[in-house]
Amino acid sequence: MSVLENWNEWKDFLGDRLNHAQNEGMNEQVVNNLAFEIGDYLAKQVEAKNPQEKVLADLWSVASEQEQHAIASMMVKLVQNNGSH
Known about the structure:
Radius of gyration: 12 Å
Number of domains: 1
Protein name: DUF3243 domain-containing protein
Organism: Metabacillus halosaccharovorans
Number of helices: 4
Structural class: mainly alpha
Helix content: over 70%
Largest sheet: none
Order of helices and strands: HHHH
Shape: globular
InterPro entries: DUF3243, Uncharacterised_YmfJ, YmfJ/YflH_sf
Strand content: under 5%
CATH class: Mainly Alpha
Pfam family, one: DUF3243
């Protein structure tokens, strides 16, 4: 099963990656920019695997670039304290 198929597993996965990036010294702006790039890639290239991802993809598709950055930033905040580490 892909990590993308389960919303909670996806959030845990993102939380783990965020914790790792922060432990390596990546600052908040770099993390948010990377989240935007990942969100853009996922919205354009990867089919949503669950209802939550579908909502995010739909929101992303109608958002301006500034709003997309806000969505990416909110996803970072959502997973900030998630993850197994």
